[in-house]
Structure formats: structure tokens, C-alpha cells
Design brief:
The protein is built from 21 helices and 8 strands. By secondary structure, the protein is of the alpha/beta class.
Length: 411
């Protein structure tokens, strides 16, 4: 962490690598200043390759955005005509431009949420960090400090964002800030569901996100979207350290942890309220159903003991998401199941019919019907448990199945 004043500004500009921006610094007016998350993350040296850039200008932000697009390319988007806010999307970068609120940069920063987000770098003064609320000191001490109670209530999403940032950065919430978040948690119900979901998804993806999510549950921030009792599974084991201890590879737990964490806090109905995608609702609901079906006491034993049709159903429904189920299991069964799941040719862990419906219709003179669906399900089951190995065997098994159906003989 850099020191104060000019050294901090120099360190921040070094991390920002303005020479790599999709348009030159000289393209902006002399009163422009970089604010918000990019400044914070530059001081923490945690910027990605194309960070979102938020800039304030004295006036004419929308017109400036259009002019920059005309000269340098990219797509201008008006975000808020009344408040004069626009975005330029250019070569994989997002550059937000907003009219400064108040007579000075310091006045503009006064309206922001947390001190670590209330710092600015004037583009024309590379040796100056504008920090009227002690944000740099709070970065150095690892504290999340809200500027004012009213600022949090101006946009209640800031309540959840504070928890999310504290979790992402490993910071402690200052006591008064924590009290305000708990006191005003009901204000979140007035925030658009999509915005709440975006914050929750960031928490779920954060390496230590399970801790922030647990605090959300403990403080009741998510209660309005929880309609079916407590969480389906504990959040405590859902850390990347635990996932690696169980044998999951990084690319596996990066997919599994966010899904398992989301399923631990919300069900499909809650996600629907938050306007999530239908796909996410289905993935979460299937995972929760299997967690409840197998229970929390030796779930691996119950899974191994499922009847064949149920075992096949498990793998069909969780074919792509099985590691998320395994995060609450013991290491030995996890290793055994992962070894098979990693093999795309394993027809139990990645079920598919050994022959498609069109071929069955051609070869056996069948028509599209519920009977054809049942036959395909039967053949999939036979293949999954090693009783079919090729198309010829599948056709012969299909003929026998149809004959039993005609005779009324149980399969």
C-alpha cells in the first residue's frame, strides 16, 4: 500500500497504465477526474486488464461521450439523461462519464457510499490524490467506513455492496457502518431485483464470499426472498480451501462454489423474484432438491445406495454441476465420484441415449409418442449401468422391450 499524497497518486497511476486505455487521457477535458472503484483498486494493486473507468466532468458528460465515440469509436449509451450520465463501450472497455454534482470535486465525493470509494485522481494533476474522507487510511487499515447514514439510504443497494466489498477485500466493517446496514436492511426491498442479484453473484464468485453471504443471512438482509425455511446447506464448507482439500481442481471449484453458495442462500422462487435467468433458477433448484434428498448426514452413502433409476436421474440433472453437490461430502467418495465425472465417456455420470429417436423410428417403425420416450429412457438406463455397449445391442434391447410391452410383461 503506497503512502499518502503524491506517492499514492504515483502508485495509482502506475497501476492504471493509462497508456493502455482505449482513448488517450488528453481526450478528456482538463477538469475530468477518475473516481470510484478504479482508484480504489489501483491503490490496492488489484486492477484487471481492462478495468471499468468512472470519470466525472464539470458539465456535458453525455455530449462528451458522443464526441469521444465519434472520434475514437465505440458505442455511446445514455445511462441517465436527467443526471447527465453516459457510458462509452469501446474495445472491451467500459468508460462511464458523469456530470460532477456540486461546486467541486470534493463536494461530488461527499455523496458517495464508503470512504474507500470516495477518492479521485484528477487527470490533469498526476501528483494529486483527492481524499477528503480518509479513504487511503482506511485502505491501509482494512476498514469499510460509510460516509453517512443518508448516503447509504440514497441507494439502499449500498447496504449490500458494503458487505460484498468487505468480503472481497477482507476488510472489517466499522461498527457504526455495520449498525446502519443491519438497521436499514428492509430498505433493500425497494431495490430492483436484478441489481441485488448482481451483488449476490459477485459475492458467490469471491474467493471468501461464503463469509459475506453468511453475514447476509445472519443480519437478515436476504429474508424477503427466502420463503422455504433455512438454507439448503451450510455455507461454512464452501471455501476454495475446502474445495481443494477435497480434490477439486481450480477450474472445477470456480464453477462449483458460486452455484453451491447461491443454492445455500436462495431457492428457485427467491431467484425468480430477483429476476434471475431461468437457467440459474433450474440449476439451483435441482441442486437443492438433491441436497435435501440425500440429507446432510452421510449423503454419499445415500447416493451410492440409490436405485438405478434414481441414480440415473441424479446424474442427468447434475451432469454439469456434480462438483457443487460433492462439496459437502467426505474426501474419499468425492475422489471416487470426481474421477468418473471427469471422464466424458462415463455413461452413468454423463448419461445419453445409446441411439437417437429418429433411428429407432426408422429401424423399428415407431412413431413419435410417449412410448418412444419411455424406450429411450430405458435404453439410457441400460447403457448407464453397462448392459449396452453399441448400437446393435441397443436395437436388440429395444426390440425385446417392445415385445414385453406388447405382452404386458414387466421389464
Amino acid at each position: 500500500m503506497p503512502g499518502s499524497g503524491g506517492s499514492a497518486a504515483a502508485a495509482a497511476w502506475g497501476a492504471l497504465r493509462a497508456e493502455d486505455w482505449p482513448l488517450p487521457v488528453s481526450a478528456f477535458p482538463g477538469d475530468a477526474a477518475l473516481v470510484g472503484g478504479a482508484v480504489r483498486d489501483a491503490l490496492l494493486n488489484r486492477l484487471g486488464p481492462a478495468p471499468d473507468l468512472d470519470l466525472v466532468v464539470a458539465e456535458g458528460a453525455i455530449e462528451l461521450c458522443k464526441a469521444l465515440s465519434k472520434r475514437y469509436g465505440g458505442s455511446p449509451v445514455v445511462l441517465d439523461a436527467e443526471r447527465d450520465i453516459a457510458r462509452l463501450v469501446i474495445r472491451g472497455w467500459s468508460v462511464d462519464l458523469a456530470r460532477r454534482e456540486g461546486p467541486s470535486l470534493e463536494a461530488d465525493l461527499q455523496r458517495r457510499d464508503y470512504s474507500i470509494n470516495a477518492m479521485a485522481l484528477p487527470l490533469a494533476e498526476r501528483d494529486r490524490l483527492v481524499d477528503p474522507h480518509g479513504g487511503l487510511g482506511h485502505l491501509q487499515s482494512g476498514k469499510m467506513v460509510a460516509l453517512a447514514e443518508a448516503n447509504l439510504l440514497d441507494d439502499a443497494l449500498r447496504l449490500l455492496r458494503g458487505l460484498r466489498l468487505a468480503s472481497e477485500l477482507g476488510f472489517q466493517l466499522e461498527s457504526q457502518t455495520a449498525a446502519w446496514i443491519q438497521q436499514h436492511r428492509q430498505q433493500l426491498t425497494g431495490v430492483a431485483g436484478e441489481r441485488i442479484l448482481a451483488e449476490l453473484e459477485k459475492l458467490c464468485q469471491s474467493p471468501e464470499g461464503h463469509r459475506g453471504l453468511q453475514r447476509c443471512l445472519d443480519w437478515g438482509l436476504l429474508a424477503p426472498w427466502q420463503h422455504n425455511g433455512p438454507a439448503s446447506a451450510a455455507l461454512e464448507p464452501l471455501s476454495w480451501q475446502q474445495a481443494e482439500a477435497l480434490g477439486l481442481r481450480a477450474e472445477e471449484w470456480r464453477d462449483a462454489l458460486p452455484l453451491a453458495r447461491m443454492a445455500a442462500i436462495l431457492d428457485g422462487a427467491g431467484l425468480q423474484q430477483l429476476k434471475s435467468s431461468r437457467k440459474l433458477q433450474q440449476r439451483v433448484q435441482r441442486l437443492r432438491q438433491w441436497q435435501q434428498r440425500l440429507g446432510h448426514d452421510a449423503p454419499e452413502s445415500r447416493a451410492d445406495g440409490l436405485a438405478e433409476p434414481e441414480r440415473l436421474k441424479l446424474h442427468r440433472e447434475l451432469s454439469g454441476d456434480l462438483p457443487a453437490l460433492l462439496l459437502h461430502w467426505g474426501p474419499d467418495p468425492v475422489q471416487r465420484w470426481l474421477e468418473r465425472w471427469r471422464n466424458p465417456e462415463d455413461r452413468l455420470f454423463h448419461p445419453q441415449a445409446p441411439i437417437n429417436g429418429d433411428q429407432l423410428q426408422r429401424e423399428l417403425g415407431l412413431k413419435a409418442s410417449p412410448q418412444l420416450g419411455s424406450l429411450l429412457q430405458f435404453l439410457m438406463l441400460e447403457q448407464a449401468f453397462g448392459r449396452l455397449h453399441d448400437t446393435a445391442e441397443a436395437l436388440e434391447a429395444a426390440r425385446r422391450w417392445l415385445k414385453r410391452q406388447e405382452e404386458g410383461t414387466p421389464p
